[in-house]
Specification:
Layout: H1 6-22, E1 81-84, E2 88-91, E3 100-104, E4 109-116, E5 121-126, E6 129-137, E7 141-144, E8 152-153, E9 165-175, E10 178-187, E11 195-202, E12 208-213, E13 218-220, E14 223-226, E15 236-240, E16 253-262, E17 266-276
Parallel strand pairs: 4-8
Antiparallel strand pairs: 1-4, 1-7, 2-3, 4-5, 5-6, 9-10, 10-15, 11-12, 11-16, 13-14, 16-17
């Protein structure tokens, strides 16, 4: 019985095709490439998708009126004024070396314009000439009104002057039955005075009394009424004699007064002499 030859024939045919393919030129091989892929990368299953923002209702702010209180009435600060309590010279600067502008009597009311940086004077307006202003000694006036907003002035440079003073007889007074003489002195120099010497001589009898002082105090009877030490430039002080046994009213007296820039009659000293007779 003859066996079928188809299987063997198929194998031989396949082998012949393979061998023929190997003999083809390399350049004639055709390779098929896959088409280019898109740049868009699909999200992976684990990548979160953008969350869609769902608009929500935003609460509306309602403007509310803030209650305001009625404005309170505030008192207008009183303009500062100065009342003259002692006769006082008003000058272009704080001191007797400056030019005299006016002399004000007790009771005069003046508008205060400023305060002196030194603190011993106030700057006021001359009521007769409002554009004219001058310095008044603080101890000679009484201030009223609000001075907080007032400017403070630096005084002009003072004229240079040697130590000097003006001298005037004030009055006789008594202490324990004895009379003594009181003199007024004003420092018109450029430096303070710190001591004084006084000698009062009865020109009829030749008798005299004398003593020295380290202050320029005001005395009333036997009592110290006001202490003044030192006597600053522009200031007014007092020199009193020791008590004397004779009557000052009956006899002609001569007073010699020396004032010095240092205590115990040291420093620069100035002397003046005057006759007294009432």
């Amino acid at each position: 019985m003859r066996k079928p030859f188809f299987p063997l024939f198929g194998l031989l045919t396949t082998a012949a095709l393979v061998l023929s393919a190997c003999n083809l030129p390399i350049g004639s091989a055709i390779s098929e490439t896959a088409p280019p892929t898109s740049d868009v990368i699909a999200p992976s299953a684990t990548e979160a998708k953008p969350t869609e923002v769902v608009p929500t209702d935003t609460p509306t702010l309602t403007a509310t009126a803030t209650p305001t209180s009625e404005p309170s009435a505030t008192a207008t600060p009183q303009a500062p004024v100065a009342e003259v309590v002692r006769e006082s010279n008003c000058r272009t600067g704080p001191g007797a070396l400056y030019k005299l502008v006016a002399t004000y009597q007790v009771g005069q009311m003046l508008e205060v314009a400023a305060k002196d940086l030194g603190g011993g004077y106030w700057f006021v307006r001359n009521p007769e000439k409002p554009e004219e202003q001058c310095y008044l000694l603080a101890q000679n006036i009484r201030i009223s009104g609000d001075t907080a907003a007032l400017p403070k002035f630096t005084p002009p440079p003072s004229p240079t002057a040697p130590p000097y003073f003006t001298l005037a007889f004030k009055k006789f007074d008594t202490c324990e039955g004895s009379e003594y003489a009181i003199f007024t002195v004003e420092n018109v120099g450029s430096v303070p005075f710190r001591s004084a010497y006084i000698k009062v001589t009865n020109q009829k009898t030749g008798k005299s009394v004398e003593h020295s002082l380290n202050a320029f105090d005001l005395r009333v009877k036997c009592v110290l009424a006001k202490n003044i030490a030192p006597l600053d430039p522009g200031g007014t002080g007092y020199v009193h004699s020791p008590p004397f046994k004779w009557s000052g009213h009956a006899d002609k007296l001569r007073a010699a007064i020396m004032i010095c820039t240092e205590k115990n009659l040291k420093g620069a000293c100035v002397t003046q002499t005057m006759d007294i007779k009432e």
